[in-house]
Amino acid sequence: MVNKLYPDAASALEGLLFDGMHLCAGGFGLCGIPERLIDAIRDSGVKDLTIASNNAGIDGEGLGKLLRTRQVKKMISSYVGENKEFERQYLAGELEVEFCPQGTLAERCRAGGAGIPGFYTKTGVGTAVAEGKEVKNFDGQDYILERGIFADVAIIKGWKADESGNLIFRKTARNFNQPMATAAKICVAEVEEVVPVGSLDPDTIHLPGIYVKRMIVGAPYEKKIEFRTVRQREAA
User: Fold this and answer.
1) Is the pLDDT score of 215 beyond 80?
2) Whole-angstrom distance, CA of residue 14 vs CA of residue 146
3) Opening angle at CA 209, ends 205 and 215, nearest 5
4) 212: phi > 0 → left, psi -120 to 50 → alpha, else beta; which?
5) Cβ atoms of residues 193 and 156 within 8 Å
6) Can you give the pTM of this predicted structure?
7) Are 197 and 158 in contact (CB under 8 A)?
8) How far is CA 137 from CA 111, 122, 145, in A?
9) Where, if anywhere, are coiled coils annotated (predicted)?
10) Per-residue pLDDT band at 222 (split at 50, 70, 90)
11) What element of type H or E holds 97?
């Protein structure tokens, strides 16, 4: 069996990074983001990245770290509202942004991973999302053509994996990680725990090991919260 487990994020990404590359990154906000791999990409100094991800984390966390170091050329995202640096760079013309409805983004990655170059969808018809895209009529309804996404490298975060790369996501941390994992030439995963082959119930596996080429154990992780909302203390 091929050894997929690497000692750290830098070694797992060795030989894969280059300027101008296209990345798919799993995660949603700060949930299920590949923190160690993002740090290693930042430390590598690679630049002019195009990144497909639901969003870019928040200021100074997640993909926000790569924005802060100006390593990102273009983001393909569905939501950017919690990142002031993202907003500043976009409005200043320093960052190219391709906005994509959330479900469409997930399907573009799934399609890319399935070898489907494009598909038609009603989402975005008649809006700015449709600008410059082919429109086709099916049964009296207009649909726009969306291209599948297939990147050079996908970076994802999982919960538990066996030594062959079969992987389980934990609850909502599954989010975009699963479709992103399939939508690239090489998928690098960071997980919280690696167990021997045969330890996982086959029916619980979310991502087959055939998709995972390299892995690291990133634990322990600090639970970070995007917003903390508390009730005002009542007067005694």
Assistant:
1) yes
2) 32
3) 110
4) beta
5) no
6) 0.92
7) no
8) 21, 10, 11
9) none
10) confident
11) strand 96-99
> Phi/psi of residue 221, each to 5°?
-115, 150
Q: Quick check: 127 pLDDT over 80?
A: yes
pLDDT > 70 fraction of the chain, expressed in percent and rounded:
100
Q: Tokens for 40?
A: 């290693």
The token pair at 158 is: 């999982």
Q: Are 70 and 198 in contact (CB under 8 A)?
A: no
CA distance 66 to 38: 8
Are 105 and 129 a contacting pair, CB within 8 Å?
no
Please report which helix (H) or strand (E) contains residue 138, including its range: strand 135-138
Cα 202 to Cα 59, 181, 206, 210, distances in angstroms? 38, 19, 9, 14
- Region 136-142 average pLDDT: 97
Q: Angle CA(17)–CA(107)–CA(57) in degrees, nearest 5?
A: 55
Residue 236: pLDDT band with limits 50, 70, 90: low
Are 90 and 111 contacting, i.e. CB atoms less than 8 angstroms apart? no
Q: How far apart are CA 38 and CA 60, in angstroms?
A: 12
Q: What is the pLDDT of residues 51-90, one digit of tens each?
A: 999 999 888 899 999 999 999 999 999 987 778 899 899 9
* Closest C-alpha to 163, from 145, 189, 135, 125: 189
- In the block, which residue shows the tokens 């590598």? 44
